[in-house]
Every structure is written in structure tokens, then in C-alpha cells.
Amino acid sequence: MRVFSGIQPTGKLHIGNYLGAIKQWVELQEKNECVFCIVDLHALTVPYDPKTLQESILEKVVVYLAAGIDPEKSIIFIQSQIKEHAELTWLLNTITSIGDLTRMTQYKEKSKKFKKNLNAGLLNYPILMASDILL
Description:
Layout: E1 2-7, H1 15-28, E2 33-38, H2 40-43, H3 50-67, E3 74-78, H4 83-93, H5 98-102, H6 105-113, H7 120-123, H8 125-134
Parallel strand pairs: 1-2, 2-3
Helix pairs in contact: 4-8
GO molecular function: ATP binding; tryptophan-tRNA ligase activity
EC number: 6.1.1.2
Family: Belongs to the class-I aminoacyl-tRNA synthetase family.
């Protein structure tokens, strides 16, 4: 089985992140083909501090490794370093209706929360997720 999962570089990781996801990822890599990503492009869809984003990205990679994600057994990458993510997202944008995107739960919730800083990236979030899966 192939497993894909990722975390955004925003925010600090806590024990819940470890127990709820990362610990299972370590176990999954023993019997599966695993791909783990720092989804930094997703992080750009809501307000963030550009001064600390790069540091947060590297911190999450270190956490993956320290928790036991083995780069010999799993693929670990930073989303923005794979240009095909942005390219496929752009192509999928051209065939996706805005009406479909505005009905997405994540967009509805976060657009209420970030009224002053709402950007098109948030609207396109599901398309970027589709690109993650398709690639």
C-alpha cells in the first residue's frame, strides 16, 4: 500500500501530533511505501509569518527524522521544492468551478476566521490537496 501524509510547517508540534499521526507513520513505513511531506504551500493559504516559515519547515523535517521516519524507507520532501505541485494545481484550476470551491467546508470555515486576510490560495486549497494525491 502507498501512504501519503503531510503536516503544515505552521504552529508547534505537540504530543497530540505525535500520538495521533507521526507515531503511526513510523509504524506504517515498516510495511508500506510511505511519502511524507511538509506541505508549506498549504501554509501560505492563511496568514503566516514569512520570517519564521523557513525555520518552521526545517524544524518539521527534523521532527520527522527524530521521531523515526527513516529516509531509507520513506520519501520525505518539502512541497514547494517539487515544482509539479504548483503546475498541476494551476492546470486543475482551469477545469474546476469556483462554485464547487466555495462550497468546500474548509473554505467556509477559514474564510469566516480570516476575513481580513482572505486570499485565493484558501479557495484553491482543495485543488492543491488533489495535486498532492495525484503526484
